[in-house]
Design goal:
This protein has twelve helices and eleven strands. The structure holds S-adenosylmethionine. S-adenosylmethionine binds next to helix 6 and helix 10.
Length: 295
């Protein structure tokens, strides 16, 4: 196939302008990421870099930009997203991991600074596995249990764990935290051994607010990963009362929450014999994580 040498700037200029007109703030980066995919580059190409490209590849690149114009996030077009220190694959069954959730990883690291411990960690509502697998990267002797009601998302966690080549004891449990006695079911899989760390980022958007979210979220993230019921708190009400049965006495719980939910979720924790440890804010100064313990 005939390839010509051309600089990236000339290749993406028109496409960047189209995206900018539609209000996309990261138009240049978006186009360079899409072009890198077409050129099978492992790094994102630079604007002033020269590349070899065929006419067919140019057409494919323009097709990807058209998807972006319709609001599809670049991570969904590429089916991958950087989180913490690695790149995770995604599909339509997994939430697109958010940078805000990295606050939760930071909080765990602050509370458990000793990296060689053989910690037992539960990732409740694991999606792509970004939380549990990032923790495994930090605590290489850890055992991680991934729980999700979506079997298809658990398959993505398995694929990510293979791609990332992280060693460790991993378990994948398909379970619904709204089901009766789900904590007992989970402990049976664990031969009754409880957890040192529980992390969870459950769905927390009130059902009737989903339609107001941006297209990239409401049309591409699975509803199962977003919908927190009438007031957004359904998952917390099912999860939190059972956590004391799953945690070791010295263990800690790290719960991601939506904007403004801190007082209500803290109350659910206190009503269920957990002790409040602290709130953690994200980069926009929004309280994003609550830490609980048992004593
Ligand atoms: C907000 S996503 C979080 C995914 C991932 N932990 C992350 O931070 O990117 C919530 C996850 O909870 C799962 N989930 C929703 N309802 C559930 C239920 N009743 N029982 C177990 N998992 C559930 C969803 O499938 C989804 O993977």
């Amino acid at each position: 196939m005939n390839k010509k040498k051309i600089d990236v700037y000339s290749l993406i200029k028109l496409e960047v302008e189209k995206l900018k007109k539609l209000g996309f703030k990261t138009a240049s980066l978006d186009c360079r990421m899409l072009l890198s995919q077409i050129l099978k580059k492992t790094n994102t190409v630079y604007t002033h870099q020269e590349v070899y490209i065929s006419q067919n590849q140019i057409l494919k690149f323009q097709t990807l930009v058209k998807q972006r114009q319709k609001g599809k996030p670049v991570s969904r077009i590429l089916n991958r997203r950087n989180f913490w220190k690695r790149e995770f694959i995604l599909d339509e069954h997994t939430l697109d991991p958010r940078p805000d959730s990295e606050i939760l990883i930071e909080a765990v690291l602050r509370h458990f600074p000793e990296k060689n411990q053989s910690l037992k960690i539960l990732d409740l509502g694991s999606g792509s596995g970004c939380l549990g697998l990032s923790l495994l990267e930090e605590y290489e002797n850890a055992q991680i249990t991934f729980v999700d009601t979506s079997k298809k998302s658990l398959k993505v966690v398995k694929r990510n764990s293979l791609l990332l080549r992280l060693k460790g004891k991993l378990k994948y449990i398909n379970l619904d935290w709204h089901s009766y006695d789900w904590d007992t079911t989970l402990l049976n899989f664990e031969e009754k051994t409880k957890f040192d760390i529980i992390v969870t980022n459950p769905p927390y958007i009130p059902s009737n607010e989903i339609k107001f979210l941006e297209i990239g979220v409401k049309d591409y993230d699975p509803t199962l990963a977003l919908d927190g019921g009438n007031d957004g708190l359904d998952a917390y009400r099912s999860i939190i009362p059972r956590l004391k049965n799953l945690l070791k006495p010295e263990g800690k719980i790290f719960v991601e929450i939506g904007k403004g939910q801190e007082d209500l979720v803290k109350k659910i924790g206190l009503q269920n014999k957990l002790l409040f440890v602290e709130f953690k804010k994200d980069l926009l100064n929004i309280i994003r994580v609550i830490v609980f313990c048992m004593k």
